[in-house]
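Handout, page 2. Input:
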Amino acid sequence: MQIADLITPDRVVCHAKASSKKRAFELLAEMLAGCQPGLTQQDIVDSLMNRERLGSTGLGHGVAIPHGRIKKLRTASAAIVQLERGIDFDAIDNEPVDLLFALVVPEESTEEHLQLLSQLAEMLGDEQLRGRLHSAQTRDELCTLVTCRQPPETSRAAHA
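Output:
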């Protein structure tokens, strides 16, 4: 499974407001709760908070990948939030985080969880892509960057 397969436009928000890590998790949970009947926002917030207690998921460069495993979940799901203003996230570089990629997976999906986290880390390690994600102005632009990893104009030119 690829990260792009888990991202849908209704799980991408651009210029969101959140004043704290907890509020950002609540926003992500609101977006992800609809991915499966019976899964609540609180299930997701609890999972993200429990993982965060083990250590910050703030990677540096304004990016975090909050993630967790949920017993009730049947399939992996992801959401992206670009914040209007960075928040304290205890990131490794102590810089505020304004780009969050949340990932939730079924409790027993250890290998899939690690593969998806690896994909995200590789994608977000690309400095140019990361810069474009930070400066995206619309949900569509964020979606395109995550699913295609290049703006549509570049894609068309490459296939011309």
